[in-house]
């Protein structure tokens, strides 16, 4: 398996100190999307749907049930976007990643 990616953090200042509220990790991998749908590593496939005409799966991990990942089918494998709340969030992690995923997946079709 080959994975390349990066992470982004939402930060705020509390009492003069920076505090991480949430993180978003974006990874491209040569793992097939079908492995997400059949692997016992995944706790719950929340939804199967399409993003920009591509198959997509929304799921949580057994090891990190407070996170949520959207995986989008690509020609080489999949694009994975995982939302990880650190502080309490009024919007659930799957709702957050469902909002971000189409924006990032749009880059798959640009040249």
Can you characterise this structure?
The chain is of the alpha+beta class. The chain has one domain. Helix content is 17%, strand content 51%. The protein has 2 helices and 6 strands. Strands 1-2-6-5-4-3 form a 6-stranded antiparallel sheet. The chain is globular and about 45 Å long. The mean pLDDT is 88.
Protein topology:
Blueprint lengths: L2 E12 L2 E13 L3 H6 L3 E10 L2 E8 L6 E6 L4 E8 L7 H13 L6
Antiparallel strand pairs: 1-2, 2-6, 3-4, 4-5, 5-6
Give descriptors for this structure.
51% strand; alpha+beta; 111 residues; globular; six-stranded antiparallel beta sheet
The first-to-last residue Cα distance is 25 Å
Residues in β-strands, percent: over 45%
Helices and strands, in order, run as EEHEEEEH
| Helical proportion, percent range | 10-25%
Biggest sheet features: 6 strands, antiparallel
The structural class is alpha+beta
Number of domains: 1
Concise summary:
With 111 residues, this protein is an alpha+beta fold. The chain contains 2 helices and 6 strands; from the N terminus they run E-E-H-E-E-E-E-H.
């Amino acid at each position: 398996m080959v994975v390349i990616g990066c992470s982004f953090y939402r930060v705020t200042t509390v009492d003069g100190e920076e505090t991480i509220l949430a993180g978003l990790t974006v990874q491209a991998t040569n793992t097939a999307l079908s492995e997400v749908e059949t692997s016992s590593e995944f706790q719950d496939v929340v939804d199967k749907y399409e993003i920009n005409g591509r198959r997509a799966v929304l799921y949580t991990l057994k090891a990190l049930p407070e996170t949520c990942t959207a995986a989008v089918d690509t020609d080489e494998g999949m694009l994975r976007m995982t939302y990880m709340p650190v502080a309490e969030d009024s919007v659930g992690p799957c709702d957050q990643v469902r909002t971000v995923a189409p924006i990032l997946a749009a880059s798959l079709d640009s040249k």
